[in-house]
Amino acid sequence: MSDGMQKLLFDPMKHPEWVAPHSPEWYKQLFEEVGEYRYPWKSQFEEPRAEMIFADKITTYLGAGRLLDVGCGHGEFALQFALNAREVTGIDIVEGFVKNWKQN
């Protein structure tokens, strides 16, 4: 704009149906619409990616111990360690995510 004024874009947080991301309501809505927590957690960066480094650290400390995954979603991370751990427990704010864990 030539008069020095900036054009303001619509603030989505002011929409009447706005749900704050990663709030309990947001996760509940995600489950109701999709039926599971879908987040493949696979970045597009060259290896080693952050999730690979994190998994290596967990493996180092885990041994044959117990793993608690808080905010486990669909269980992809917890299930990755299920064969090596003595016990794996996943909890999530949305019960349906945990019920939909898929064993490989």
UniProtKB/TrEMBL annotation:
Q: Which domain of life is it from?
A: Bacteria
Q: Which UniProt keywords apply?
A: Methyltransferase, Transferase
Q: Which GO terms describe its biological process?
A: methylation
The UniProt GO MF terms for this protein read: methyltransferase activity
Does the record's keyword annotation contain Transferase? yes
Q: Where is the Methyltransferase type domain?
A: 68-103
Keyword Isomerase appears in the UniProt entry: no
> InterPro entries, per this entry?
Methyltransf_11, SAM-dependent_MTases_sf
Q: Which Pfam families match?
A: Methyltransf_11 (PF08241)
Q: What is this protein called?
A: Methyltransferase domain-containing protein
Record lineage = Bacteria, Bacillati, Bacillota, Bacilli, Bacillales
